[in-house]
Amino acid sequence: MLKVAKDYTHEEDTFEILTELQHFGGYTNLIDFTTDSHVALFFACESSLDKPGRMILLERTEDIDKKYQIKRPQNPQNRIIAQKSVFVRPPMGFLERKQYTVIDIPGLLKKPILVHLQKHHGISIQTVYNDLHGYIRNQDTHLKEGIEVYISETQPIEDVLQITDSQPSKKRES
Predict the structure, then answer these.
(1) Residue 150 carries which DSSP code?
(2) Which H/E stretch holds residue 126?
(3) pTM for the full model?
(4) Would you say 92 and 29 are in contact if contact means Cβ atoms under 8 Å apart?
């Protein structure tokens, strides 16, 4: 796979090619992690709002970094920078359970968490997936928003006029 992928990238380094493949949704033996807890929370909440999400915390030490080959790409793309990504390349293809902690996020809390992350930390689909590939990945969301804007801007506006009598009212004598 790497030999063929080299024909489609300017990268020469194997790890850099793998991170680029991972970035565009290709199959690799890398696992994406972020160094930002708010971005991790966003990923745990962004999909399947009715189902629980989870965050996986991996404590980084020199030994862990070496064992799991944790690295940052040398030539990161916009999205990798925004996501504060590091890539983990476990030698056996998975992380040993004792090496990480799991935090479960109930589905009921996902939407309010996403609202909070956008309002207070500026973290949203647009900031996390900030490239053309991200736009395409989320084009259904963009399409719905575009349709709503189009409809609201093309609907006829009814003018409501209220005519008031500018002359003082005369009292009737009985």
Answers:
(1) H
(2) helix 125-128
(3) 0.71
(4) no
